[in-house]
Amino acid sequence: MSRLRSSVWVWAPGRCSLRLCPRSMAAATVLSLLTLAGLLVSLSVGQVEIGPDRIVRILAGTDPDAMARRILLDIRLPRGLTAVFVGAALAVSGAVFQSVSRNALGSPDLIGFTTGAASGAIVQIVFFRSGAAGVMVAAVAGGLLTAVVVYALAARRRVVGSYRLVLVGIGMGSILSALNGLMLAKGALDNAIMANLWLAGSLSARNWGHVVPVMLGCILLIPVIVLLARQLSLVEMGDDLAAQLGVRVERVRLVMVLCAVILAALATGAAGPIAFIALAAPQLAGRLTPAGRLPVMVAAAMGALLMVIADLIGHVLPLGVSLPIGRLTGVVGGLYLIWLLSRSRTL
Q1: How many Cα atoms occupy the beta-carbon half-sphere of 267 within 13 Å?
Q2: Residue 15 carries which DSSP code?
Q3: Which of 258, 230, 260 is nearest to 246 (CA)?
Q4: Is 92 helix (H, G, I), strand (E, B) or coil?
Q5: 8 Å CB contact between 85 and 214
Q6: 159-166, long-range: CB within 8 Å, 24+ apart, which pairs?
Q7: Contact (Cβ atoms closer than 8 angstroms) between residue 88 and residue 113
Q8: What average pLDDT score do residues 50-63 get?
Q9: Is the per-residue pLDDT at 267 higher than 60?
Q10: CA distances from 36 to 97, 102, 117, 297 (A)
Q11: Rounded Cα distance, 108 and 96, in Å
Q12: Quick one: pLDDT band at residue 69, thresholds 50, 70, 90?
């Protein structure tokens, strides 16, 4: 283990090397602990109170209360884990897109990829009345198809410009949003109501069929993004400079966009369109990490924490109803976007 620039630790046992930043590791650890604490609180809150000690006993299989075990394992735990992994997936996706576009507003929900995933899901809900698995597959297919179209339209001479990618994505998102409204208007009333409820973004009635796909997506794709994060940070300095440093610019950009689109689509399929998380979590994570680095793990922990907090707020608000988390994050995200625009001199 050797130290580099007093802020990065490099471990090089062989041909591979691992760069560790103590500041980023500390931030990710603290955020993860806060997420775990918030998750325990969310598992305890409800009409049937289940204290932390009972949660531990139920998870260990030593609590004899079948009703409490069913409430925790079949209702609250899937909901809580969906919030954690959806938040992490959206935050990492947002970090990648903000890096690729070199723009703080370059999140998948603003440049059309989340809308594309929603289009695929709406097709399944309105016309085929599919379950969780079908909606998830359709969301991923819709997100990938949107990414292919946007990437192809944004490419000039096989090179994708950052601002062109954002502008094409915004235009594609507007088209797909109108298409989604048309499908809702033409579909059967019951199916259209279900699709509208899904479009609100919600963690209600989540089950393990929603948790497992987005969890596997995070486990498989986030390490790939971590491995390519340093190369993408070099691409931020300019394609020509990155190419001179040995980075295969278009290959790195394509792989990272593909991973980010799949993460965003899986998150959308699991919980519906969730605003704000992909936009704000990477920005907040960047304030906790050294400049010039793609804060992948810190962003993932921040996104999970924000989702858990938003879910808790939706539970405890004195409105007499469970507020859809997508509406709550949309309100907060709009205020954050206004603040971001008022503070920035380059947007």
Answers
A1: 35
A2: S
A3: 230
A4: helix
A5: yes
A6: 159/239, 159/250, 160/250, 160/253, 162/100, 162/101, 162/102, 162/103, 162/106, 163/101, 163/103, 165/100, 165/101, 165/111, 166/101, 166/103, 166/105, 166/106, 166/111
A7: no
A8: 83
A9: yes
A10: 27, 32, 29, 15
A11: 9
A12: confident
pLDDT at 263: 94
What is the Cα–Cα distance from 17 to 293, expressed in whole angstroms?
17
Among 30-39, 76-85, 110-119, 258-267, whose mean pLDDT is lowest?
A: 110-119
Residues belonging to the chain: 347
Say if CB 152 and CB 142 are below 8 A apart: no
Token pair belonging to 81:
């884990």
CA distances from 168 to 44, 106, 141, 158 (A): 45, 12, 19, 16
What was the pLDDT predicted at 312? 85
* Paired residues of 230 in beta bridges: none
- Which run of H or of E encompasses 10? strand 8-11
Mean pLDDT across the chain: 81
Residue 19 in contact with residue 230, Cβ under 8 Å? yes
Q: What is the mean pLDDT of residues 149-158?
A: 79
Q: Which CATH architecture has domain 79-343?
A: Orthogonal Bundle (1.10)
Largest CA distance in the chain: 66
- Give the list of residues 6+ apart from residue 336 with CB closer than 8 angstroms, or none: 276, 279, 280
CA angle 135, 154, 183 (to 5 degrees): 30
What pLDDT, on the 0 to 100 scale, is given for residue 214? 94
Instruction: Outline where DSSP puts E strands in 102-188.
Output: 155-156, 159-160
* CA distance linking residue 304 with residue 299, whole number of Å: 9
Contact 241, 248 (CB under 8 A): no
Burial label for 12, CB within 10 Å (0-12, 13-18, 19+), is exposed
Query: Cα Rg for the chain, rounded, in angstroms?
Result: 21
Q: Domain limits of the chain?
A: 79-343
